[in-house]
Structures are given as structure tokens and as C-alpha cells.
Amino acid sequence: MALAASAPLCVPQSYDPSFQVDVCLDDSLRASAVLSDFFLAEFFSRLSLLDIVLRKHIQLSKAQKNVDKASRLSMGSHLSQAQELSKQLDEMVEELNLPAPLPLQDFISEMELADIMPNALSFVQNSCKEPGRLYTSRLDYYLTEVNMLHQLHSMSSMIAQEVALGQSQNQKYLAHQVVILYTLIKQLGPDMAAIRSSLEANFDNLKTACSSGCGRMPEKLATWLTKLCTSLESVSLNLPEQCNRFQHLQHVYQAFETQWYMAS
Fold first, then answer.
1. In this predicted model, which residue has the larger pLDDT, 148 or 72?
2. pLDDT tens digits, residue range 203-216?
3. Is residue 219 situated within a structural domain?
């Protein structure tokens, strides 16, 4: 009886306009806003494969005069594979039923993959016809520059260690190592002008000291070379943040890392 006499837990209420729900009609219609991680991984994997296949095809085409029959057959196979991959990618985008449908080339640009895989984009834009040229992506430029900085850091560390050890049997190779170091510095352009000038001003003295066979090089010269190598080690780690062209390319690599993380 006590249970039957208790107050109801819920009491129906009449509609109150203050309980209205906002409908967000201005939400983004960007493709990336409605895609699953699985789709992104699959799309990126197939687009990567398309770009690789096209690179291989174009490289074989450039050497067409010197290739054998088997290589020519391989070229035809690469083109067919690229066309099939493009068809699969197009079907994937169509099946999304996006609020604002996009052609495949626009979808690639919308996903910020055009700078990473320009050969795939060009192939799609040209209706999957025979590709005429090989495009170098901005990601390629970035990785080339970073590899150069890695070499610069490694060579600087090696030279600094050998100067510190002062082993005469290694010093005959030191001038050659410094030449390699100088070549790397020149490739990095005007950002390294001050270090390059210092190296040019002291190279003759360094070469003479290394070829004399008198054991340890003069202390003044050794101190200069050690400081220069230490400075280069620091520069090789900090240059990407200071140099405009690295900042220009770094967002491309970050986009690549994001898409690769999704695909892994």
C-alpha cells in the first residue's frame, strides 16, 4: 500500500519553447569531417601505391630506348595497374555519398595530399592517360634536405672526435673529410655563408698540417676546427626551425606523417 501511494518518478510536462535544440546548418562539409579511420587508411595506402607505380612507369619510359622486351611489357603492366588503382579510388570516393560530392582529383586536394603525391594527382587530372613527366613532391625536397643535415651532423661529429684524439694515422684523411663537409655546407646555401667563409679562409693551413705527418696539428688550428664542428652540429639540429625553406616544407611532412599514421 505504501508503494502504491508514493509519488510517480516522472511527471509528463507540456512543451516549453525554452527547451529548443539548435540545428547547426553551418557545420563543415569538408570530406575529412565525415571519413572513418579505416577509409583514410585504405585510401592513403592505395593512393601511395598509385604514386609509386607511376614513378616506376615514368622512369622506365625515360629509358625506353635502352630497355628490353621484358621491360616494355612491364611498362604496360604498370600503366594498367595505375588505371585500375585510379578506378578503385574513384569508386571509394563515390561510395562515400558525401554531402557535397567531389571528383577524385578535388578529393585528393581536399585531403591535402596533392603536395605529397603529385604524380597520382596529375594522372587522375589527365583522365588516366599515359603520364608525360615525373613530378618531384615537396615531401621529396624536405627529406632530401633533412638527409643532408644528417650527413652534416655525422661528418662534423666524426671530424671533432678525430681532432680530439689527435691520431696521426687518421689526420691524413682529415682534409678529405673537411672537403666533404664543405660540399655539404655549400649545398645548404646562404644560411651557412659565415661558416663557409671561415672554412675557406683556413683550409690551406689545415691541408698543410694534415699532410705534414708531424702528429698532432697545431693547437690553434685544432681549436678552430673543433669549434667549427661543434657549431655545425648545433646548426644541423636548429636550421630546420630557422630556415624559411624548411618551414615552407615542414607542413607537407606533417601532413604525410598524419596520413601515414592513419594508414599504419
1. 148
2. 888 888 877 766 67
3. yes
